[in-house]
UniProtKB/TrEMBL annotation:
Naturally occurring in which organism (per UniProt): Streptomyces uncialis
Protein name, as recorded: M6 family metalloprotease domain protein
Keyword terms of this UniProt record: Hydrolase, Metalloprotease, Protease, Signal
Signal peptide (residue range): 1-28
Example of a GO MF term: metallopeptidase activity
SUPFAM superfamilies, alphabetized: Metalloproteases ('zincins'), catalytic domain (SSF55486)
GO biological process terms held by the UniProt record: proteolysis
Region (Disordered) residue spans: 33-54
InterPro entries, per the entry: Peptidase_M6-like_domain
């Protein structure tokens, strides 16, 4: 087997190419024809909410129109809504040159029920993810896998367009595409290379130029290939995690890993690392997705020092996020992470501090986690967890200071229930 560091970097690097290029093309194509005016009730995201109050308004940082997929708030329309009941159509496909390996039901069972459970836990029950598979068997494509030209970084046109058209033609007699909010295409694992070599899995999100089925474009679709099996024996528990990552894109979230891998955010968000042990979303993502209410977010706009209370992000209710906007597009976020809920890999609980730049595109490092102990080597030896940032959180008595902005976060204390008190200073 390859050493663990290789396993992290290899798939990360491959995946960034695949999804960055694909997303860029998908969104760029549709944006060129006025994607912003194409929001329909069927696909409206949390973005469709009315203008927020003055309390959190300054914290809703946003990028310019040139950014394809950004951390900005609100998420533009066109993506799948991320609260309430979301119906996910799952289609298991195979090819003449890659006939289905095992049964289609077994392939589906690699991702469910874990994926819906992951979303239910992360969203505090706000996202009711309903996976459906109206076609129980493999859906055979008319062309060979090779003919579609699916490879790392493949754009939507012409290969994926052809594939989606063929999927729609094959499934349409039995499937009402209009009844679903997103589509998962689960390919037979023997089509294409091993995920250890090249991660092909990709999502085309907000793409209203996609082929139309039952009157609606297949605009938010995730494609999963191969198996993210690192050989550590944990595949059955962790292999599904590529799907919540890919679905994160249909809800409008960018990739947080970069060409260098997971070094910017580490294992603190599934959009950064989706191999190995489970992890949750950042609090920022939960707010962006509508899983945290505005009153769970403290927006620090005044100067001086103010004390805030934060409860562990994985627990429902209570204050979760302190955000210090630096200007209209960047800010510093503060939250408490513990080894609860989806965060099974957390080896040092505490206050996580990170910077968000809504002007930085998907895969280019829109989020940067600050490490409380640079070059510490981290506190985990789990495979596929970026070790250096695993001990990034700040604990009682420690202070984070951003030299550039002068923003300072001091962790005062933590009580027995896990409630943290922090002091935030901005000059
Ligand atoms: Zn991705």
């Amino acid at each position: 087997m390859q050493p663990s560091s290789r396993r992290i970097r290899g798939p990360g690097r491959a995946a960034v190419l695949a999804s960055m290029t694909a997303l860029t093309l998908a969104v760029a194509t549709s944006a060129g024809t006025g994607r912003l005016s194409h929001g329909t009730p069927h696909t409206a995201g949390p973005a469709a909410q009315p203008t927020r109050g003055a309390t959190v308004g300054p914290c809703m940082i946003s990028g310019t129109l040139g950014v394809q997929m950004s951390e900005g708030m609100p998420t533009p329309p066109g993506y799948t809504r991320s609260t309430g009941t979301v119906r996910a159509l799952n289609l298991m496909i195979d090819f003449p040159d890659a006939p289905g390996e095992g049964t289609a039901a077994e392939r589906l069972a690699e991702f469910f029920p874990q994926t819906e459970k992951w979303f239910s836990t992360s969203s505090y029950g706000r996202l009711d993810y309903r996976p459906e598979a109206p076609i129980a068997d493999w859906l055979r494509m008319p062309r060979t896998f090779k003919e579609y030209g699916i490879e790392r970084g493949a754009p939507f046109d012409p290969g994926y367009r052809q594939l989606v058209e063929d999927i729609v033609t094959a499934a349409d007699p039995e499937v009402d595409f209009g009844a679903y909010d997103l589509v998962n295409v689960l390919t037979t694992p023997n089509a294409g290379p091993s995920a250890l070599d090249t991660v092909l899995s990709v999502t085309f999100a907000g793409n209203h130029e996609a082929p139309v089925a039952d009157g609606v474009p297949v605009s938010n679709a995730s494609f999963v290939y191969s198996r993210q099996d690192d050989g550590s024996g944990s595949y059955e528990e962790t292999g599904y995690r590529v799907l919540p990552h890919e679905n994160g894109h249909v809800f409008g979230l960018p990739d947080l890993y970069t060409h260098e891998g997971g070094g910017a955010v580490g294992h603190w968000d599934i959009m950064s690392e989706d191999w190995g042990a489970n992890n949750d979303f950042l609090g920022w993502h939960k707010w962006k997705l509508g899983w945290l209410d505005d009153n769970q977010v403290s927006c620090v706009t005044g100067s001086g020092t103010v004390e805030y209370t934060l409860t562990p992000l994985a627990r429902e209710g209570g204050p979760k996020l302190v955000f210090v906007p630096l200007d209209g597009r960047t800010g510093i976020a503060v939250e408490v992470r513990t080894g609860e809920g989806n965060d099974e890999a957390v080896c040092k609980a505490g206050v996580l501090v990170y910077r968000i730049d809504a002007e930085v595109d998907t895969g280019r490092g829109p989020v940067t986690v600050y490490d409380s102990g640079d070059d510490s080597g981290g506190c985990t030896r789990r495979p596929n967890v970026h070790a250096e940032l695993s001990d990034a959180p700040f604990t009682a008595g420690e202070t984070f200071k951003d030299q550039e902005s002068g923003v300072q976060v001091t962790v005062d204390r933590v009580d027995l229930s896990g409630k943290y008190t922090v002091r935030v200073t901005r000059s």
